[in-house]
Amino acid sequence: MTLLDGKNAIVYGAAGRIGTAVATAFAGEGARVFLTGRSRARLDEVAGRIRAAGGLAETAEVDALDERAVDEHAAAVGAVDVSVNLIGHGDVQGTPLVDMAVADYERPVLTAVRTQFLTARAAARQMISRQRPGAILFFGGAADPVREFAVGGLQVAFHALEAMRRQLAAELGQYGIRTVTLRTGGITETLPAEMPGRAELAENIAGKTMLGRAATLADVGAVAAFVASDQAASMTAATVNISCGALVD
Q1: Is 246 among the domain residues?
Q2: pLDDT on residue 143
Q3: Are 56 and 47 in contact (CB under 8 A)?
Q4: In a domain, 148, yes or no
Q5: How far is C-alpha 128 from the chain's CA centre?
Q6: Coil, strand or helix at 168
Q7: Residue 162: how many CB atoms within 10 A of its CB?
Q8: How many independent structural domains does the chain possess?
Q9: Is 0.70 surpassed by the pTM of this model?
Q10: For residue 29, what are the domain limits?
């Protein structure tokens, strides 16, 4: 028996590299995955690979910043057991705060807070109405500022999401709904190939870990599947460290 047999999991931003890894891991553990995003063609490619491997996958174009679209899709899925939001936040990195435009600074904060609120609320409403305990996963996690990287408003966004996650855990625990954040400290596989200084940044990320390597996409998917499963039924109001020791709790 696999970890997520009989469970329905919505993955927002499923066409991205992290979203694809998580959706693939969920499907590999027996979940029916509902892949959402704004590019149907890319979603269908991911779904095709999952089905070819024997998994169950459905796709839908959903703008995770659109309240009606999110609510209607979750209602159509109905029996939601797992929800994870992995859409991009539009953050600008590499620019010092003193040189950054206010729109670039606030965009990841506004985007992250709005989308995670909408998707978590939609999932929780379905879980409550159907008396179906489940898991809502967050990604990123708050961390101390890193001096050598100019990350703009991204860490502010992560801190805001952690506050939301803690509040949701407090309010939803009575329904058996869990909220957990996955933290990685950086996944070098997601760095664009054409990114200036990519090799140096990848080496820097790995060099800050205790294991001498960065977390992989496969690592993230495997841990996400475990956290979403009943094997982790006692885990809520928590962060899970997948950083290979780069982040010290």
Answers
A1: no
A2: 66
A3: no
A4: yes
A5: 22
A6: helix
A7: 18
A8: 1
A9: yes
A10: 8-241
